[in-house]
Structures are given as structure tokens and as C-alpha cells.
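ok so i was messing around last nite and threw this chain in just to see what happens. nothing serious, just curious
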Amino acid sequence: LDAESYAVIKDAVSYAISRGIFVVAASGNAGASIDGVYSLANMEGVISVGATNSLDQLTWFSNYGQNLFITAPGLQVGSVRDGQSYVDSGTSQAASFVSGALSILLNKYPNASVKDIESMLARGAADLGDAGWDPRSGYGLLNIAGALQAGETAIDSIEWVKTPKPVEHTRSISVLPTGVSPQIQAAVTNKKVSETFYQGEVG
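result:
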């Protein structure tokens, strides 16, 4: 993305998030940091997803950074397109798992706040790498069973303890940003979970 496109998309994403919509983005497939990059995965409030392999290890291609939230399987993932099965790899595949997990959590806890749902994902994740949150794996590997179990406890907010610097993530209600079309408004109003994929070298 260039700076102008980034600004336009960021306005649309901010509006979606202000309406209580989850925006999930693949972190990208360059095996590099997204910090300071014009990337959807680097936008405030977006759930940025990295990829792991069948051994629950980070893949070589999974991008990382201060905005990475969680990881999920992204190597040799089976799927179906146009009625045909296929196998592909990439953080886009990993992001699909997280979007599915959000749907399950929202169905189970329809009255939960955005922060509550994010907290369930974070608390339920299986820790990878350094203890707690880290820029390579976020809060760890997606664990839907763990997230559902976390939902059984009273959760008011998520603790964002990051290294090397703490970053506070909030989702606040904001006025309609300039340039958001009626189509975007309608889309984000009618769709609870939104997936955005960064197309990189792998998928």
C-alpha cells in the first residue's frame, strides 16, 4: 500500500471497528517486521495474524511486529475453491482460522464486548516463544477450546503487556470519517466479522 491508499483504508477500518466489527488481517508472508509499514495488519485495532506449521512452530514466512495479535495454522492448509479441494500456505490461511474462532465466540457469547472477545482469544492461546505476548507470535497459538473456557470467567478487559514497549489498544466509538462511502457504511453495519487478507509471497 502507498501512503494515500493506506490512509483511505485506515479510515474505513476505523469506522468498521467503531461499529463493533472485528477486522482480521493476515500479517503477511515476507518473514519481516510490519512495524512502520503501510500494511492492513499494522493498523490500530486490527487483529493481525501470523502463521504456524504442523509442529506448532512459527513458519519462516510469517511477518511479525508490535501489532501482531495471535498465530494460527498456515502451512499446507486444505480448503475448497469453486468446488475443488486444494492445499495452500500463508498467513491468509491462518487468518481464516481466527475469523472462524471469532464467529464461534460471538455465537456463544453474543452480548460480550469487543474487548471481552479479544481477551478470550488472548487468554485461551497456547503460548509460543517468549513468555506472554511477544512480537513474533503475539499472544500465542489460537486455541478455540481455551478461548471458550476463558469466556466462562468474568472478563472486563485485556491486559496488553508487550515488549519492548507497552502498547495500549482501545476500540472507541468515533464519528464517521471523511471519505467513507455509503457502500462501506452498509457493509460494516451488516457484517459482524470482516476478513482482510494481505497477499504476499506465499498466499
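not much to say yet. The chain has five helices and six strands.
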